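Progress report, Aim 2. The chain analyzed during this reporting quarter is listed below.
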Amino acid sequence: NMSFARNSFANLLGGAVPAIVMLVTTPYMLWKLGAVDYGLLTLISAIVGYFSFIDINLTAGSIKYVAQFRACGDIERESQTIVLGIIIYAAIGIFGAATLFAFAIPLSSGLFSIPLEHQGEAVRCLQVASLGFAFGQLQQYFNSLPQAIQRFDLTARFEAIFGTLVPIFSVVILWQGGGIYEMLLLRVASSALHTLVLVIVCRRLFAEFRFGLPCRALTRTVMSFSGFSYLSKIAALTYAHADRLIIGAFLGMEAVTLYSVPATVINRFLGITFRLSSVIFPTSSALAEHGDWSRLKALYFEGSRYMVYLNGAIVLTILLFSKEILHYWIGPVIAEQGWVILTLIGLAILVDSLTNIPSMVNDGLGHSRISGLFAIGRALLALALT
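Predicted structure tokens for the chain:
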């Protein structure tokens, strides 16, 4: 119980510190960039983020089976699972980066309502962001490996460091006269350095790692689990980015800014509490491997009660003071138009958060098909309504 609590709070702090820094620095970024450039930065981030649909979510399979094989002391299959993930994510990163780079011009000039004078900048920014996509895939995978063996303290520490430095240096860049191109260069460099640090950490944590290509049976098992988890990932990407892409295509950059600023508030706070509960995924996999159903049941119900209370308290507080929060954080203009958006998104995310722990326990028990099919149904409905 103490180990689970320590991992939960370490993971919480790893998200809370960067979120606070981002919330503090966002008003300055918006003021320096203006509504159009800030909307363009948000749109580029959404394009790169949504392009992760080619990621088949092998991180979920790796966390599940690395945790399981570590619990039963099977170093050989643990090592093969790690090798499989490295191969897949290197291939995804290279393919995705090349495709984003190649389609930077049509995406900037034809698909979205980007002002003509900003289209050249958009092309350059997308091409730089494509490099960040490649590093981001490897960073995401190597970040999942320590989590699989309950070392959330390490991943949270580096997430806090890099997640704090990037917005601070972004402010410095804007203060020195730079723009979104330079900000994206900073993000690419940060992702590359973060990946290198994680590789060194994983090399130490998995000291008994032995390189060996994964056998066919293991590959089939991990890929099958990850395939259904991929449905959940597609749903999450749709939930996180599709609304901004649709708004950018129909209404323009200023509308993207008006929508994304209120959404940032609620997503940052609920993203922090999600990190508290995400520790249950590898833990449930390890407990199931040992057949410790009584502890898993207690963890499920206790975790659910705490998360419902915590998320409800946070969201209702934000909703009660939605106009005041936006007024003092950003300014009266966005507050007048954005508080309704903040209220609706907050209610939606509160309801959605009720599924977090059930989905992760399902995945930990190997039933990713159930949570995946529910998630994709929700995503399709949300996309059509948007």
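The radius of gyration is 21 Å. The chain has 15 helices and no strands. These observations will guide the mutagenesis work planned for the next reporting period.
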